[in-house]
């Protein structure tokens, strides 16, 4: 039998010298203060970093050791490497000149909520596993529903309910599963291959992905073309033709995904008319309002949710525009039992006094996985720290900044708006030059986008809709002010001058 090293204690199974303290309160206090100072300085100096990372693929592997350290390293050394090696490779989503995708907004309030989430490390998969986690989530989801003026059929205080998912992808998946099993329980699982789902070709790419995960045959996923003359919203007449053709072919219409604020152009599908059509065929209607739905807390934008009482489910993401940090999506379901019947698990080791009662929510049955973080704390802190009126002002200020950029684009005859602005996204491009074809125009716009992002000053993104290549400028970063928008336009103009000089 081998002998232990002299410094090893076989009883504690640890090194007697330099023993690591996992969570000594005073040691944690000192190091946490150091990390908070690091974070505060990062935000304070955020404009000194490029908005878009300027590194090349593989850069970090050349800077990092090939193996983890054998001995503990100091926090000073770790933070130094974060500053020198990791931050340069981060696309700064919190930068005031980040205008790409849809931003993941931030706030001190949400940060504090996330700190407590990590502190408690609660796992609220069932009520008994963490009663406060379950009940706070139910309360906050109803608070948010009231802000959105949702009907009682989506609230726990009514006949429905809501749940925090990490992303819209998960929200869409669980609703498709609920819709699928609701239908198959009546007609038999042998007919699963006949199920058909519908959505605009402007719906988020995650929609097709979740349909496939749910077992929908790829040939039965209808991606319905949206047209420029409809401002890329889904046409009820076009949808009707698809549904009628499928019914005639003996297929079974199952699910319709509508969008309030598509990724490419923030197109808004007409919920009222499309839901009326879908309801005639008993189709589950889900509304993906991940971005645009947040604006609906403002009365002047609430009309985008008109007809919401006719749909089965709605999801929106406060992490995109309501200051909550990433991975916080709110899903509302009119008939929660459709989802929970599909996803329920009840092993003996999770059964307890209240598990069989209808009055107790087990959120494990509202999601794909089992474990649940205390994520609602972020939304809870934001709603209490800001109040509804301040959150409305936040949305309105971003929309006003987008209007400023829109006016600047209109003032320059070399540019055009591709679609009318909605919310805080401006879709624009260089116009087609006389004597040059559309492909050359696309080349110039690609070059402009590449050069804007390569400056590090700002980050914009692009899309292609209806065969049109366009640039996307969306205001959503918490730290953005009007001066940032104006300066970014000046950068765009300067680079445009240089590009067109070479033509």
From TrEMBL:
<dbReference type="InterPro" id="IPR015424">
    <property type="entry name" value="PyrdxlP-dep_Trfase"/>
</dbReference>
<dbReference type="InterPro" id="IPR002129">
    <property type="entry name" value="PyrdxlP-dep_de-COase"/>
</dbReference>
<dbReference type="InterPro" id="IPR015422">
    <property type="entry name" value="PyrdxlP-dep_Trfase_small"/>
</dbReference>
<dbReference type="Pfam" id="PF00282">
    <property type="entry name" value="Pyridoxal_deC"/>
</dbReference>
<keyword id="KW-0663">Pyridoxal phosphate</keyword>
<keyword id="KW-0210">Decarboxylase</keyword>
<dbReference type="GO" id="GO:0006520">
    <property type="term" value="P:amino acid metabolic process"/>
</dbReference>
<dbReference type="InterPro" id="IPR015421">
    <property type="entry name" value="PyrdxlP-dep_Trfase_major"/>
</dbReference>
<comment type="similarity">
    <text>Belongs to the group II decarboxylase family.</text>
</comment>
<protein>
    <submittedName>
        <fullName>BCAA decarboxylase</fullName>
    </submittedName>
</protein>
<dbReference type="GO" id="GO:0019752">
    <property type="term" value="P:carboxylic acid metabolic process"/>
</dbReference>
<dbReference type="GO" id="GO:0005737">
    <property type="term" value="C:cytoplasm"/>
</dbReference>
<dbReference type="InterPro" id="IPR010977">
    <property type="entry name" value="Aromatic_deC"/>
</dbReference>
<dbReference type="GO" id="GO:0036469">
    <property type="term" value="F:L-tryptophan decarboxylase activity"/>
</dbReference>
<dbReference type="GO" id="GO:0030170">
    <property type="term" value="F:pyridoxal phosphate binding"/>
</dbReference>
<keyword id="KW-0456">Lyase</keyword>
<feature type="modified residue" description="N6-(pyridoxal phosphate)lysine">
    <location>
        <position position="320"/>
    </location>
</feature>
